[in-house]
Each structure stands twice: as C-alpha cells, then as structure tokens.
Predict the structure.
Amino acid sequence: MTTVNGRPEGAEPATIRARTRAIRLGVVIPLVIVSGLLLAVYAFNLLYFNSALTGPGPNACDPAVDGFGACWRPEQRTFWIVTAAVSLPAAICLGMSLIWLGSTRRWWPWPVATALLLLAGGLALNQVP
C-alpha cells in the first residue's frame, strides 16, 4: 500500500542528527575515560583491602597503640561488600552507555546511572581503610 504522496505506508526509520550524535559522544567519551580509571582503582583497592573480609587475624590491634585507623573494624566488611556490589553494576551501565550510544532510543539513563553508582562506590570505598 502507498499513501496519497506515493510513499510506502509504514513507519519511517528514525535517524540521529549530527548535533545529537556530537552531544552523545561529548558525554560518553569523557565518561568512559573517567569511569574506566575509577573502576580500575576500585578493583585495585578491593584487592588491596581484601583483608577487610577475613577479620582482624591472629594479631589483635590496640587502638591506643596503633591508632584507630590502623585497626580492623567490623563495618569495613560492609563497606567492602557495598563497593564490590556497586562496581559491577557500574561497569554494566558503562557498557550499556556504549551500546546505546548509536541507538535512537533513550540513552541518557545509562551514563547517569554509571556516574551515580561510581559515586556511591567511591563513598563506600573511602570508609574501608
């Protein structure tokens, strides 16, 4: 079937304008660079502070002698788990930001979610040591 103008009936494919693509690239490229570096730092810190999961160990720490920041605290385990649990979805959202970059559908929730998850992971990671 054709319309009155002689064009085929049906939905026309949507295209992304050049300005919109430039805005998307301007948002996603810095996000990928910053997020990639932050995720690498989070991974290193999670491996470095892996002892937060195992507990104080055989040598007990005296906060009066060693300082309160040097001693193992039970809440460190919680912050480590929160950081690990937030970093994986942040990496997934970062990948989805790249996948949906060329799509005509909504793309902006993925970079926003990536930034918010990385912020939450950073706040939790600052509480581990």
Notes: Residues 5 and 61 are 83 Å apart (CA to CA).
